[in-house]
Amino acid sequence: MEQQKKPVLCLTFDNMGEALNVRRGKASLPDMTAPGITVGFPNLLRLLATYDLRATFFVEGWSALHYGDVLDSISRGGHHIGLHGWIHEEFAELPERPARFRAPGGRIGPYGRQIEAEEGFLL
Q1: With CB atoms counted within 10 Å of each terminal CB, which end of the chain scores lower, N or C?
Q2: Which long-range contacts (CB under 8 A, 24 or more apart) does 6-15 make?
Q3: What SS3 class is residue 14?
Q4: Per-residue CA distances from 5 to 8, 9, 10, 45, 46 (Å)
Q5: Cβ-based neighbour number of residue 39 at 10 Å
Q6: Is the whole model's pTM more than 0.85, yes or no?
Q7: Structure confidence by residue, pLDDT tens digits, 4-60
Q8: Residue 31: per-residue pLDDT
């Protein structure tokens, strides 16, 4: 007897906390009492668990830095976490791509310069 395949539903969520307001200059600190953090995320994670659903949460780096407990609960629920910029930048409005690159820690490995040249970075 052939087993039926479980249907697939792709769910993604983005934005967490005040990252967008930080970019807009309307906030500078995390709000640990914000309803999205204290009510929204716990309810959403419970709902996903009820239906045994997994999702990908795209989170800004600033939010990840300040809401580690929320990220931990997302991860414990079996969900994926993706990067959504640092403070919800408008990537379409960023200036022309950078001409130079510096790797974190300054080390780029044996092929780094070759890759930089191929991608048009100034050496």
Answers
A1: N
A2: 9/53, 11/48, 11/53, 11/54, 11/55, 11/56, 12/55, 12/56, 12/57, 12/58, 13/44, 13/55, 13/56, 13/57, 13/58, 14/57, 14/58, 14/59, 14/84, 15/58, 15/60, 15/63, 15/84, 15/88
A3: strand
A4: 9, 13, 15, 24, 24
A5: 10
A6: no
A7: 787 788 989 988 889 999 999 999 999 999 999 999 999 999 999 999 999 999 999
A8: 93
